[in-house]
Amino acid sequence: MRTLGVDLAAAAKKTAAAVIEWDDGAARLAHLSLDVGDEEILRLFGTSAMTGIDSPLGWPDAFLPFIAGHLTFEPHPVLDHDGIEGRRLLAYRDTDRFVTGNTGLIPLSVSADRLAHPAMRCAVIQAKIAREYGPQARDGSGRLAEVYPAASLKLWGIHARGYKGRGAPEAEMLSSAVADLAVKAPWLDLAGYRADLAASDDMFDALIASLSARAVAVGATLRPGPGHAAAALTEGWIHLPSGQLSGLASR
Predict the structure, then answer these.
(1) Which of 43, 71, 94, 152 is an S-S bond match for 231, by CB 3.0 to 4.6 Å?
(2) Prediction pTM value
């Protein structure tokens, strides 16, 4: 099996991709790249059994009617979200609230934060994938799944708070996180990329996204239950690991 992880930015710059090859209880980082364009993502998607992408796959179900109502001067869809609680339904998806409830982490809002820019690009990438390989369900039941590296790291017990950034403290924390991963996943061959991972939080996130994709592929993530299934198909679903990192290579 090959899994692809993508840390998606609004443009090719700072977008990273990582491909892991899995075989007989071991795994090898076979590809790692930075400043990745759409065509390269599509090519790698085509050669991978599962892709984990660190980007929202959709928007809150309430958001589009709200915008449409505003556009057409129809008050009801807009007034339905009067007040802070109503606006939270516009800002956060069902899966965002699920992640917060299970991890304490608060994902960025796809409709009210700069995360919207990568999400717009992700929507275009999804359309390109659909055109070339067929539509992929946003709940992760196909070959594409939404992942959240920060949550995966936390649930796998890898201490990595504060590793994003270009300062000396962030660089030290990133190097420590890479070292911790190497200890907790001795079956993962970093294939000479360890220095690159320690120098780029984008590439490190892509690696964690690829590991998370493996968790999706082997059924080791929390899937949307009956109360979440409908929203997951339209809004997307962040796959949280449900097992230990050590179990990924043995399945």
Answers:
(1) 94
(2) 0.95
